[in-house]
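Protocol step 4 of 6: structure prediction from sequence.
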Amino acid sequence: MARVEGYVEIDTERCKGCGLCINACPTKVLEFDMGTFNSKGYHPARYKGTGCIACGFCYMMCPDVCITVYRSVPATVGK
């Protein structure tokens, strides 16, 4: 079976920096954005940019529902 690829979008204004998503990620593609604060004064989580397998664990763990997980769909060539 082919490896699934995906990516994560995080609503940084809603993120309170609890780190639950970072701990839940099996591929460790999430981290705290230590160079940025949101309007509430938290360091939000951020996606590193590669390696997401679109498992959805981060989405399920987020108590503030500020994570969206996208799964890449391979193009099919003719049927």
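Step 5 (inspection) to follow. DSSP finds two helices and four strands in the chain.
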